[in-house]
Amino acid sequence: MAGRKWSIAGQLFALQALVVVVLVTAGGVGAALLARADATEAAREHVLAVAETVARTPGVVEALRSPDPAAVLAPYAESVRAGTDTDFVVVMAPDRTRYSHPDPGRIGQRFIGEIGPALAGRPVVVVDTGTLGESVRAVVPVRESGRVVGLVAVGITTATINDELLGQAPALLAASGAALALAGAGSWQLSRRLRRQTHGLGPAQITRMYEYHDAVLHSVGEGLVVVDADRRLALINDEGRRLLGLDPGAELVDRPVTDLDLPPALVELILSGQAAHDDLILTADRSLVANQRPTAFGGPPHGTVLTLRDHTELRALTSELDSVRGLTEALRSQAHEAANRLHTVLTLVELGRTDEAVRLASEELAVAQQLTDQVVGAIAEPALAALLLGKSAQAAERGVELSVDPESRLDVDTLPAGDLLTVVGNLVDNALEAVAAGEPPRRVCVRVTEDDGEVVVEVTDSGPGLPAELVTDAFRRGWSTKARGRGLGLALVGQVVARYGGRHDVTRPESGGTVVRVRLPVPTSGGAAQVTHRERGA
């Protein structure tokens, strides 16, 4: 509750208000002191000018020579005092005897204050205390033929100066109040803006949120990528860097996503800014599931938050499960077909037509054994050989003739079995899909060889052929020749090709159909170990 009460915005406003009050108060005091100094200086100049004017008046010298100087000088001095807004104008003899004073009762008494410099012939301006209190006074000598015959003292009391300053106080206070109100309003607006941006949280809460945020980002098992409205990377956690193959120590924040080495499908998803749910993203060696949501706080979107989950192992297991399921279906079909053939043979035997029964059984056995011998003899890799035999059964069930090129040759441990199964299985599946809806004869031919340090997988079908304008998209995620399909097989093939640094091409022979050729460099022992490690890490 204390953190809520004293949020960052509230603390900032209180600090700004305190600073503004101190500054305005200091400025007001400084302005008052400066005004007082200016008023005092103006009073000094004023009394000096009045005193020198009176001292130089010819009637003053004549009055000082008269038998009763006070009778002439007292009314004259009072008229000058009233006309010059001064508090006293005193004309005196060199021995301090006053001939004029605002209080008539003090005429004839001795003047109180400093007159030494004036007696020496120099005017003097001092702050001194007399019968009227503290005052700023000027004492000027009255000369006749070069000698001092009298003195003129003109003064303004400090109380008068202070009263004048107090008269200016309302204007000063109004200016200070206006400055304080303006600064306070600005501070309030700034604190409101900061309160909206920090959601009213206090420093302790923000510190805890940062600590939790940092701990979660480093420990969460999903990749997290935050992009701002300008499609610049705002945040990426450690798992996100690992899944996307980005340098853990590279500075990536505030860089456009188009400048990062990201999969094209992921860049396309981020730039779209649209919400996505469990979209499959293929990198060079991983299968990622992406979820994306726009971020907005009561207004337009501020960017997007993207989460990535690694489904590489799950995808591999699913692929293997699909292969096993296909093989099971093929075996089921073969078992069903074999039961029919066996029933036919037994019926022929019971009918006494043994020669025909032997001939039928021998033909079926020869065909099956020929395909088995051809595949096993050419493909030493047992998993790949089993895959081709299973696919041949599936093809036969669909009415497609699947053959293995007699020139096919592949040794054991040339490439990891999983990658070979991915490439060959998906290429054959796509070929079977292409020819299944076509006119007979429906043929698919598989050729697997090792040539000049490369494993070459070539699948030829008699289907309608792949249009040239679609060749570029053939290995892109989500592409499919089916009207409502979202093909993944060729994308997985492209992933394996990219991982090995291989290449693929699609051609259309003059005789029709499509030839898909994939070349995978055979890695060295170190490269093979690296690929195996990468698969295991995936």
Automatic annotation (TrEMBL):
Membrane topology: Multi-pass membrane protein
Domain (Histidine kinase) ranges: 312-524
Chief location: membrane
Database matches in SMART domains: HATPase_c
Reaction(s) this enzyme catalyzes, per UniProt: ATP + protein L-histidine = ADP + protein N-phospho-L-histidine
EC numbers: 2.7.13.3
Compartment annotation: Cell membrane
Keywords attached to this entry: ATP-binding, Cell membrane, Kinase, Membrane, Nucleotide-binding, Phosphoprotein, Transferase, Transmembrane, Transmembrane helix, Two-component regulatory system
Superkingdom assignment: Bacteria
InterPro entries per record: HATPase_C_sf, HATPase_dom, His_kinase_dom, PAS, PAS-like_dom_sf, sCache_3, Sensor-like_sf, Sig_transdc_His_kin-like_C
Protein name per Swiss-Prot or TrEMBL: histidine kinase
Species assigned in the record: Micromonospora echinofusca
